[in-house]
Amino acid sequence: MKHFLNTQDWSRPDLDALLRQATAYKHEKLGISLKGKSIALVFFNPSMRTRTSFELGAFQLGGHAIVLQPGKDAWPIEFNLGTVMDGDTEEHIAEVARVLARYVDLIGVRAFPKFIDWQYDRQDVVLKAFAKYSTVPVINMETITHPCQELAHALALQEHFGTTDLRGKKYVLTWTYHPKPLNTAVANSALTIATRMGMDVTLLCPTEQYILDERYMGWARDNVAESGGSLTVSHDIESAYAGADVVYAKSWGALPFFGNWGPEQPIREQFKHFIVDEAKMALTNNGVFSHCLPLRRNVKATDAVMDSPNCIAINEAENRLHVQKAIMSALAHQ
Ligand code: CP
Fold first, then answer.
1. Is any ligand 1 atom within 6 A of the Cβ of residue 316?
2. Which one of 62, 87, 197, 282 has the largest count of C-beta atoms within 10 Å of its C-beta?
């Protein structure tokens, strides 16, 4: 049984098939491929796009979605094995996943890091526990990667450039300032899918402390070796933006400060000028701009960049609906 935990677990032909099916759903919204089927959407963190697009996607294909928020409208869940559960958790993932799997055909999970210990968070404990105990396919709705966003992003780029072949495009993943240290999931995912598509990828970040986890840097190197393209790390804004075809922005916390964020703050504060603005975009090759959203305007990107015809963030967000319908359909009929 196949899950959708990371795009790296899927072959390139299978990812391409998902993108083709997503395009078909974009043209023909309604279908019956989930008729009589259901998905449990388990949210440990807030969402606007993910919840809406999964719920609506299931409905449009004849299926049904049930949203559960453990600790809010569902019981708090224990993930550690062998724990004497005399604290706040009321039931164990071993029961939760197995019971849900008796009811539904698919399970989606959103579980962000706890931001205390990266060595713990990088194990993706919650997602892996669902996948371990569930007897139905599990979909990653964002944990330490965001593979659904990856496919929506890839589809938006293919649509913008009018081709499924993105090889040779200069792609800049730029860190941006945010007042809080954020999840690295979307950055990990952008690096993964951009290299998978064979683009010439630059990771632009303020200092080496902001380089991503070695697992995702390694995936990117593996992808470059297989798909062509290249991977460069840069701390220089002008040369990174020069001639770029794609600028993708995201903020994230520096991993060496994980759980001890105090000393990271004054470093981060020095790099507010990483904001994506008109001057930087003018250095590009009439480059396209995108972001996963939500985005703080005039902190991460200026109004002018967000309102520019070269901004495809809204199309990327729309594509979440179409790619997730393709993912749910594929997993429900394996
Ligand atoms: N991009 C994204 O996942 O948006 P939400 O957090 O609103 O779901």
1. no
2. 197
Write the DSSP string, 173-242: EEE---SS---SHHHHHHHHHHHHTT-EEEEE-SSGGGPPPHHHHHHHHHHHHHH--EEEEE--HHHHHT
> Per the structure block, which two tokens stand in for 19?
């993108």
Give the pLDDT confidence score for residue 306 in this predicted structure: 98
- Residue 171 confidence (pLDDT): 98
Q: Is the CB of 45 under 6 A from ligand 1?
A: no
- Helix, strand, coil % (nearest 5) of the chain? 45, 15, 40
Residues for the chain: how many in total? 334
In whole angstroms, give the CA distance from residue 188 to residue 185. 5
Q: CA-CA distances (angstroms) from residue 201 to 59, 67, 211, 236, 321?
A: 37, 37, 14, 14, 26
pLDDT, residue 281, reads 98
Is the CB of 53 inside a 6 Å radius of any atom of ligand 1?
A: no
Q: Work out which ligand 1 atom sits closest to the CA atom of 142.
A: 3
Domains and CATH numbers, the chain: 7-145+320-332 (3.40.50.1370), 149-316 (3.40.50.1370)
Measuring CA to CA, how many Å separate 35 from each of 64, 99, 134, 260, 333?
A: 8, 21, 21, 48, 11
State residue 258's pLDDT score.
Answer: 94
Q: In one letter, which amino acid is 174?
A: T
Q: Which residues on neighbouring strands pair with residue 40, listed in sequence order? A: 66, 107
pTM above 0.85, yes or no: yes
- To the nearest 10 degrees (0 to 180), the angle between helices 185-196 and 147-161 is 50
Q: Are the C-beta atoms of 5 and 32 separated by less than 8 Å?
A: no
